[in-house]
Design a protein that fits this description.
Shape: globular
Order of helices and strands: EHEEHEHEHEHEEHEHEHEEHHEEEEHEEH
Strand content: 15-25%
Low-confidence stretches: none
Distance between the termini: 33 Å
CATH topology of the largest domain: TIM Barrel
Number of domains: 2
Number of strands: 18
Structural class: alpha/beta
CATH superfamily of the largest domain: Alanine racemase
Amino acid sequence: MTKPPIYIIEEKLLRRNLELISSVASRADVEIILAFKAFALWKTFPVFREYIQSTTASSLSEARLAYEEFGSPAHTYSPAYTDWEIDDIARCSSHLTFNSLTQFSAYSERVKRQNPLLSLGLRVNPEYSEVGTLLYNPCAPGTRFGVTADKLPDRLPSAIEGFHCHCHCESGADVFQRTLKHIEEKFGKWFNQLKWINFGGGHLMTRKDYDVELLIDILQGFHRRYPHLKVVLEPGSAFAWQTGFLESHVVDIVEDKGIKTAILDVSFTCHMPDCLEMPYQPEVRGAQSVELEQATQPCTYRLGGNSCLSGDFMGSWLFNKPLNIGDTVIFEDMIHYTTVKTNTFNGITHPSIGMLHADGKLEILREYGYEDYKNRMN
């Protein structure tokens, strides 16, 4: 009898990333905070608090998670705050960034009354990003994110203490170096009116080929030019990059027109949505991704999800031996973004979430069942 599917995060690998991030923050004299949009497994927060002090939120629920579970108020940004949530968001935040001058005018005085210690910022758009996938490009023409330089007054409202800009997606330090030139060219004339600048996320400093020394050099250089500005980075993927996997199992194997599909007890649509959204083909342990022309070769399989959507499949992969019902199929690097973007579509059983501790013991952090599906509509 096979076990249910499970996401497993490895404490040893998580600490490896956290140690590197903490080192960068110290050497570059910046604050690096966790973006909940990429990772929100709150039962792991005790580990995170050994290395970082703050987090970033983009909704009331994330802000509450920061305040109530992480133990510190959030750096909060939302494309548009709502009238019925803004007071609670202000209460749970240390920094609150507005996406537009319209929202700033509507809510700045109100949030300061709610939380006098709140530091207010404005998201700006340098109109430059090297993100190749349009869906993930925050600076693409027509973007809803941020204010361009031509729309800013020469003198900022006195309540604005910081700028926030986000231009990256799993990018290298060289991309940040080129992007920073555009940020300074567009917005440098306002820097003397600010106390802080947040360079957003997408700084994938824990990736093996990332040039960490270049990143530190860039940030140190920025400090020399603007010594009065506190600098914040808020990566998401970098914290949980390559820290765990999704373990699934073969439930059935079907064939049509020479193409074999191994149907699994997980779903791309429900449990790995970025694979279809971006799209990208995930790494499968012990298998090699192959082109469509090779799909009918021996030991080659599509991998299919167990939802009723026709498009809930990917592939193909070449395995080193034929798959059988009950075999384990492991999808690598399925912790960041994946665990926060899953859904209960079709009532498909959601994988459990576990943490493999440094001592080798597996702790089940969360199990899902019928009540989770039912209560979503309760």
